[in-house]
Amino acid sequence: MNLTLKIWRQNGSSDKGRMVTYRVDDVSPDMSFLEMLDVLNERLILEGDDPVAFDHDCREGICGMCGMVINGVAHGEQKLTTTCQLHMRHFKDGDVITIEPWRAAAFPVVKDLVVDRSAFDRIIQAGGFISVPAGSAPEAHSVPVPKADADAAFDAATCIGCGACVAACPNGSASLFTAAKITHLSLLPQGQPERESRARAMVEQMDAEGFGGCTNTGECTAVCPKGIPFDTIAQMNADYLRAASK
Amino acid sequence: MKFRRRAQQENAQQENAQQENQGAEPAIAGHYRVGDPIRDTKAPEGPIEDRWDKRRFSAKLVNPVNKRKLTVIVVGTGLAGGSAAATLGELGYKVKSFCYQDSPRRAHSIAAQGGINAAKNYRGDGDSVYRLFYDTVKGGDYRARESNVYRLAQVSVNIIDQAVAQGVPFAREYGGLLDTRSFGGTQVSRTFYARGQTGQQLLLGAYQALERQVAAGNVEVHTRHEMLELVISGGRARGIVVRDMVTGEIETHLADAVVLASGGYGNVFYLSTNAKGCNTTAIWRAHKKGAYFGNPCYTQIHPTCIPQSGDHQSKLTLMSESLRNDGRVWVPKRKGDNRAPGDIPEDERDYYLERIYPAFGNLVPRDIASRAAKNVCDEGRGVGPGGLGVYLDFADAIRRLGREAVEKKYGNLFEMYERITGENPYEVPMRIYPAVHYTMGGLWVDYDLQSSIPGLFVVGEANFSDHGANRLGASALMQGLADGYFVLPTTIGDYLAGAGSFGPVDEGDVAEARKAVQDKIDKLLSVNGNRTADSFHRELGRIMWDYCGMERTEESLRKALERIPELREEFWNNVKVPGDAEGLNQALERAGRVADFFELAELMCVDALHRTESCGGHFRAESQDQDGEALRDDEHFAYVAAWEWTPEGPVLHKEELNYEYVKMTQRSYK
Amino acid sequence: MAVTGAVLVLFLIAHMLGNLKIFLGADSFNHYAEWLRTVGSPALPNRTVLTITEIVLAVCVVLHMWAAVSLARRAAKARPVKYAAKRKSQANGYAARTMRWGGVIIVLFVVWHLLDMTFGTVNPEGGDATPYARMIAGFQPDRWWVALFYLVAMVMVGLHLRHGMWSAFQSLGLTRRPQVRSTLQTTAVAVSAVLVIGFVAAPVCILIGVVK
Ligand SMILES: Cc1cc2nc3c(=O)[nH]c(=O)nc-3n(C[C@H](O)[C@H](O)[C@H](O)COP(=O)(O)OP(=O)(O)OC[C@H]3O[C@@H](n4cnc5c(N)ncnc54)[C@H](O)[C@@H]3O)c2cc1C
Ligand code: HEM
Ligand code: HEM
Ligand code: SF4
Ligand code: F3S
Ligand code: FES
């Protein structure tokens, strides 16, 4: 199939950036979205043009590196799917596809579709961990964890840190990402001692990074490739309120 | 199955024996020379179960006050590097950590699915440290060091404790205790898992520990920084040269010791299950600066991957091996039969694994299943695009167990398959094909995980250490974390205790390393030819897969050793890298990596050529028994091949392997 | 937001109940209006309670709007560059997406509504008539467009509340478990529905002549 792509091009963080239109021909329906961009880039290189910069690594939906807003939807319209796992068979010959980077003040554009997500690392630094030096851990079976809690913690823990939630949120909020980690750790017995200080510090860091506030619109969980549940945000709010009321 | 004559192999052995007599004389037609053997690996003597304790006790300690003044560089933030950097930071060293991704959490370890082994014996099914040790040595086809493997098995137990304390949500049973499963043909259930995302959960545990140390001011993480050169001064590793991938700036970072944890090099084959960015640059640069490369030819091929769908394919996706428990593998009997699978009647199908291996059938080990698939495809009976695939058919299982039961067992895998291929495996058979998955080879290290360059330590998949010629499923995660959390932090202290006397880093050495980096970048940008780096990489991968892949022959390897230098030559004359070195330039990054893959590929072929036996992941067609089983040659090859780089070509240093505890035997699957 | 929203919801519930008195006849309704003004008398001067309520309401509306505006401004700051492609909602949350301009419509409605019912400026009966008369006059069939405006506004109020109430539960962290979550979600829908029906009943009945 033949496609028209409108891609955001921005040469570095100080460039203003613009949408540029490209054509790609002979796209196979078996290609992944990134492989389709590879084809475009190979051609651009040979024509002496600058290839489109985009982030990716694992290409199997787990590293969280890839991510672009495709036709207005983070990671494209396929549910529970990262961009690297999106295949061209979901598009038609002649389609016009708009491709943009994540848009958020806390995710400045580095180049083209590549953004800087280090704000997420700083949110984790603020408290997204359990303090346990190597070698000092107690025997793993000393604390049983009810299966239901372990499973719910796991559901929250599968966040891949891609940032689609921020990209999709009308408020540019990082609530789902932050809530996923808070929930993961606060559902486990190991996470209890630092539970309140963690929630407080992480939420404050999230605000300090310049993300928007959550008004519970639920766009985040709808685009999240791992289906991080909406309930995690309630969990975060509960933990935060508990910490703040002390 | 064709039976090849043993004669060829015997010839090769004779040649090898001669070469041994000649000492450092050129062997195999000038491809390499033999140097001095490695005699001491620093493993303590005595009963195997006491060795690690002994080493821990004999290791010198660094005064806590001095730790703050000591800097350690850790390249890589995967399970090995992430856990090492976090632990060293916790101990009080000043740590600088580097990765090429935008966050340490994205290292390739994130993709590991199956699980992690540990000798906890929670099931009471007879597991023990000794059994894990035994299985690993045997599984490695007797090409791993006993001392290292024993230590790995001992430490495995602590890894699970550590991970659980960090909040890693391992699967649990209703009683709240940890669940385990059996994996990769072991008889005990010792694999801990977190659904199909064990690597992700373990890595996030290490990542969070790392970020905690960043917040505490003990670790500095440099993301989107690529190590391009090692700085050696006074005979010691003292720093690295990196490129800031965002600004393009070349930076020098100096330290008292350097740890490489840069992962495996499976991407030398272009198509593999590794992440796109996995590369050999960090270890290859170190190798060219004097670090020996251990067993480069040992690669592991996984039989159940989703096949290539066309030339555009950029990577391959692994599917759990458990599928072979219920799926039946077949291809059409007739060459070039391109009817739809459903239209091929039963008597025109060849269930070749069941036919050739009636006892094990579809459950033969990884390497046998992989080779058999390649053979039928080479005969022109492969299915799907390009004829590179075989059917894995669940029709019988669905008839026998019902669709629901199959869905319960494999639902998520079927879904993943459908997402990628667009085909519904409940209705049409899956197509599978083998793919490169893991590299057992890597930089040679001693018992302390120190390379042949003092002060350069190597951990995780980047070193060659614990898996011998073949890695068992769920053991890579174990090794990475054992190295990073427990082994390295102890052994590096012993080295750093003497750090006060290392002296300042010579400026000339830094300038030389920086110049090498700059020259290479300038050269890549100036060729301005008319092929992309990716197109070269694809061609190189094809050569490696065809000639140094699942099945290697002297002939194929010689062919590879002709083709690779030619292609490399063309690369340096005809590659096109657009743009400049200022700022983000992904094409430049890729070209630099491909350039290193070319050199590594040659060494892999030389190693594969010199090792005329078959063992583990290295199958020399000349060395098989009448059942097509790999045939080891313990008399001549029970050694680690540690290669030294010299401008005149590689020099082989042999490290003899002695087995005091596990008796060498040939495996059999018929 | 949640606190001011909650006060506004309480007011609406009370207000709706009051409005329903219209079905009990003119006296009852006028009486109720009268009572509103004299409650607490003679201990308190007339209109004390009503005035306090009005003040609390006014403060809440202002705070609520201020919160809404600052959230919106924060959101604008958090995403300075907009998407070129029209963002397609993936969350089928129509109610959620209409919170901001829905809120504005509600305020415009309240302004008109005060001019209509409280001051009588735009009411055919004028400010001096009894509340009952104002109501009846306001929704006569020839003024169908007023009734229609009320209807539309009530639907907006319903949507706003449906999401608003549920959102308040979430903001307070009450919706952590799936069962609780669905119960609260149902509660939000039910309360909004009851409010809308309760509010709409009077104008509709007047319009079709059931209440004269
Ligand atoms: C699909 C798949 C499934 C697997 N499943 C399992 C399993 O179930 N069980 C199991 O035990 N093993 C499994 N493995 C193997 C296992 O995942 C890896 O061997 C292991 O994770 C390697 O960890 P590492 O820390 O050594 O390296 P990696 O995780 O690969 O990390 C490498 C790090 O080095 C950095 N780096 C690399 N080069 C440079 C450079 N030049 N400059 C700067 N930084 C650099 C990267 O940024 C990264 O941070 C699987 C592997 C694959 C591919
Ligand atoms: C200019 C007028 C108004 C605007 C712009 C406005 C805007 C908003 C917004 C954006 C929210 C979402 C807050 C969130 O989801 O957390 C909200 C919540 C709410 N609004 Fe309004 N609103 C207005 C008027 C009203 C009125 C008049 C009422 C009641 C009669 C009301 C009742 C509520 C309630 C109960 C909530 C839920 C509070 C919460 O979510 O915490 N609003 N409003
Ligand atoms: C169709 C539905 C409604 C009807 C029939 C209605 C009717 C009335 C009437 C008759 C009064 C005058 C009471 C008096 O002066 O004693 C009044 C006052 C008022 N109404 Fe409504 N109303 C409706 C909906 C609403 C809604 C949805 C809101 C708010 C969002 C609202 C807010 C108010 C306010 C603030 C007052 C003034 C109260 C005061 O003066 O203290 N009304 N309404
Ligand atoms: S919560 Fe979902 S969308 Fe957000 S970063 Fe995590 S995986 Fe991505
Ligand atoms: S989309 Fe945004 S508003 Fe909240 S519920 Fe999700 S963060
Ligand atoms: S490239 Fe890793 S998630 Fe898409």
TrEMBL record, chain A:
Please list the GO terms describing molecular function.
2 iron, 2 sulfur cluster binding; 3 iron, 4 sulfur cluster binding; 4 iron, 4 sulfur cluster binding; electron transfer activity; metal ion binding; succinate dehydrogenase (quinone) activity
Recorded E.C. number(s)? 1.3.5.1
Q: What is the enzyme's class at the highest EC level?
A: oxidoreductase
Which biological processes are named by the entry's GO terms? respiratory electron transport chain; tricarboxylic acid cycle
For activity, the cofactor(s) needed are:
[3Fe-4S] cluster; [4Fe-4S] cluster; [2Fe-2S] cluster
- Keyword Chloroplast part of the UniProt annotation: no
Q: Which Pfam families match?
A: Fer2_3 (PF13085), Fer4_8 (PF13183)
Where the record annotates domain 4Fe-4S ferredoxin-type, the positions are 150-179
- Keywords for this entry? 2Fe-2S, 3Fe-4S, 4Fe-4S, Iron, Iron-sulfur, Metal-binding, Oxidoreductase, Tricarboxylic acid cycle
Q: Which residues form the signal peptide?
A: none
Homology family = Belongs to the succinate dehydrogenase/fumarate reductase iron-sulfur protein family.
Q: Which NCBIfam families match?
A: dhsB, PRK07570.1
Name-wise, this protein is succinate dehydrogenase
Q: What is the lineage of its organism?
A: Bacteria, Bacillati, Actinomycetota, Actinomycetes, Streptosporangiales
UniProtKB/TrEMBL annotation, chain B:
Class of the enzyme per the UniProt entry, highest EC level: oxidoreductase
Return the InterPro entries for the record: FAD-dep_OxRdtase_2_FAD-bd, FAD/NAD-bd_sf, Fum_R/Succ_DH_flav-like_C_sf, Fum_Rdtase/Succ_DH_flav-like_C, SdhA/FrdA/AprA, Succ_DH/Fum_Rdt_flav_su, Succ_DH/fumarate_Rdtase_cat_sf
Where in the cell does this protein reside?
Cell membrane
Skewed-composition ranges (Low complexity): 9-22
Co-factor requirement = FAD
Reaction(s) catalysed (UniProt annotation):
a quinone + succinate = fumarate + a quinol
The question of whether Cell inner membrane is a record keyword is answered with no
Q: How does it sit in the membrane?
A: Peripheral membrane protein
Principal cellular location given in the protein's record: membrane
Domain (FAD-dependent oxidoreductase 2 FAD-binding): residue spans on this chain: 72-477
Ranges for region Disordered: 1-47
Keywords (A to Z) from UniProt: Cell membrane, Electron transport, FAD, Flavoprotein, Membrane, Oxidoreductase, Transmembrane, Transmembrane helix, Transport
TM stretches of this protein: 70-93
| Biological processes per GO annotation | anaerobic respiration
Record's keyword annotation contains Flavoprotein:
yes
Q: Which terms in the Gene Ontology molecular function aspect does this entry carry? A: electron transfer activity; flavin adenine dinucleotide binding; steroid dehydrogenase activity, acting on the CH-CH group of donors; succinate dehydrogenase (quinone) activity
Where does the record place the catalytic residues?
366
Q: What is its EC number?
A: 1.3.5.1
State the superkingdom: Bacteria
* NCBIfam families, sorted: PRK07573.1, sdhA_Bsu
Entry similarity comment: Belongs to the FAD-dependent oxidoreductase 2 family. FRD/SDH subfamily.
User: What is the name attached to this protein's record?
Assistant: succinate dehydrogenase
Print the organism lineage: Bacteria, Bacillati, Actinomycetota, Actinomycetes, Streptosporangiales
UniProtKB/TrEMBL annotation, chain C:
Molecular functions per Gene Ontology? metal ion binding
A cellular-component GO term for this protein: membrane
Does the UniProt entry include the keyword Transmembrane?
yes
Matches recorded under Gene3D superfamilies: Fumarate reductase/succinate dehydrogenase, transmembrane subunit
Q: Does the keyword Metal-binding apply?
A: yes
Location in or out of the cell: Membrane
Q: Where are the transmembrane segments?
A: 49-73, 94-115, 144-161, 182-211
Q: What is its main location?
A: membrane
Q: Which Pfam families match?
A: Sdh_cyt (PF01127)
Keywords tagged on the record: Heme, Iron, Membrane, Metal-binding, Transmembrane, Transmembrane helix
Listed name of the protein: Succinate dehydrogenase / fumarate reductase cytochrome b subunit
The species is Microbispora rosea
